[in-house]
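Researcher: Going back to the complex we discussed earlier. I've cleaned up the inputs and rechecked each line, so this should be the final set. Can you rerun the prediction on the complete assembly and write out the structure?
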Amino acid sequence: MENANDILEVRNLKINFKTYAGTVKAIRDISFDLRKGETLAIVGESGSGKSVTTRSIMGLNAENAVIDGGTIMYKDQDLLKKTRKQMDQIRGRDIAEIFQDPMTSLDPTMKIGKQIAEPLIIHKGMKREKAYAQALEMMKLVGIDNAKERINDYPHQFSGGMRQRIVIAIALVNYPEILIADEPTTALDVTIQAQILDLMKELQAKTNTSIIFITHDLGVVAGMADRVAVMYAGKIVEYGTVDEIFYNPKHPYTWGLLNSMPTMDTSGTELPSIPGTPPDLLDPPKGDAFAARNQYALEIDTKQQPPFFKVSDTHYAATWLLDPRAPKVTPPDPIIERQKHYAQLTHEAIDKSRGKHIEEQEEQL
Amino acid sequence: MAKYLAKRIFYIILTLFIVTTATFFLMKFMPGTPLTNQAKLTPGQIHQIYKQYGLDKPLWQQYLVYLGGVVHGNFGTSFQFSNQPVSYLIGSRMGPSLTIGGEAMVVGVLAGLVVGAIGAIKANTWVDTTATIISILGVSIPSFVLAVLLQYYLGLKLRWFPIADWGGFMYTVLPTLALAASPLAETARFMRTQMVDVLSSDYIELAKAKGMGKVGIIYHHALRNSLIPVVTIVGPLAVGIMTGSMVVENIFSIPGIGEQFVKSVLTNDYPTIMGLTIVYCAMLCVVLLITDIVYGIIDPRIRINK
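Model: Rerun complete. Updated structure for the full complex:
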């Protein structure tokens, strides 16, 4: 481990999928860390490689997935080098996962008590009675009413929100060090979403679990995450603390994502969206994959992939706009608003190149 | 559950009544008479025989008389088989038929489940292909062809089993195998399809995420969920075995009920036709009832009374 605070370090991960049409380069050299007790959100649109990343950590990628390089270090062991049997001992004990759709992720023909007790029986060799007693405790912890009566119920006797609580109970019953939540609230309605997110935060505080939170919903990220990594076309394009990503974004793709998220201030008739579609990863573009959809694209974007430029110690973005030689561009108005807010938040002089522009605006106001 | 059963039994009785009625009138429309040597009999003799069996009365009266008998458990006397009571006739010949039919169902369905499950677990490998070929052969080879092949190779050439006749377990092996091919094939096909589906479902993914091993996943999560559609086809398969066993019984000279059914239809043996129809129909209804109950045991979502 490079850093004592890290629980998981992903380095230069590359994953391809062999298909009839050719090799899909789903993950194209990504690196990130997960710190102890933090929540790292990975955001990006569908197909950007969020789920493939977490599946690689779990060792649950489809059979046609080929690891093209990289390491996933957990406690000084490379998870990519482990056999299926070795991974079985880590999955559900040290690293657990919550899936997207609670309506389909529970076995419809098994009592929920047994489903929650299973990880205990598998990993700790517990006897039935003891495992069930602990499963019952877990059910109470995740807020299932009348847990004692309901332990012998089947999944169809629960609502969607309750089922997701059960899935969370299954994931947390062994108090894993890492919890991967793959869009855990996407299939739930908004009020239930909030309850589940609160529950996850509450349980994280109790268990000190590190969470990798996969989502395409930036609204959820703001309330959940400590740090955010933005993924696009199999690469991480920007990462930083949640405040840095929300109030001082540097990558035009992050700008686009934030702009297309409605806020309390959103008015007008049309919600902005990012034009175009993501590139075909069968044949990824040579330069910056976002260039074709990027109104701020420079010529070099089509020729060479941008490296990560440092914005702060915790904030990096892969866009040529941060290169000293790049022309200065003005981000969209809402982003400027966000950056202003960031300036107020931190009481720091922000990045000089934009600073001037914002000062001018502030003078005008 | 008791209420559900009572309701189902009422429907079974209703079904039996409708089937009895329909069969009775359809049967009467069949050409020919129960008399074997009609040409040699005088009209007086014919009339006397008709009167003896109540065949001279109007159709609706015959029907009511028959129905009255059935309600009291009297299925009448066979015209053809030495004037034996139909109930005795069926009772004495049902045994062998039920034995080979039951054995064929158990062997076929169990083997089918295994073949289907292995095919699904090893999907898209040579094992899967082999399993698929087995089920295609099982569906396409008629049971009587298989019967003859089994007689020739296992009976005549290898002399492992008696070629024909009836007298103990060894005699049941070849007919059972001949009859088991089709339920095996059907079960395997359904099992494979469903299990491939189940194995790619989210809850199997969750079981993997729990750290459960391959065997555990199949045993604890995949098998039970794959069984649900298989149960659906067991009913129709049982019917197929019941009615399809006649030819096989003939080939192996089994003193079963199938042969009698064919004979009774050919000779207008009205009481025997009726009796056998009712028995077959009742058996089918019971099989379907059992299927529905097993459904509930396997899948809690369709469990009755909960």
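Model: Worth noting: The first strand of chain A starts at residue 6 and ends at 19.
Researcher: Good, that matches what I expected from the previous run.
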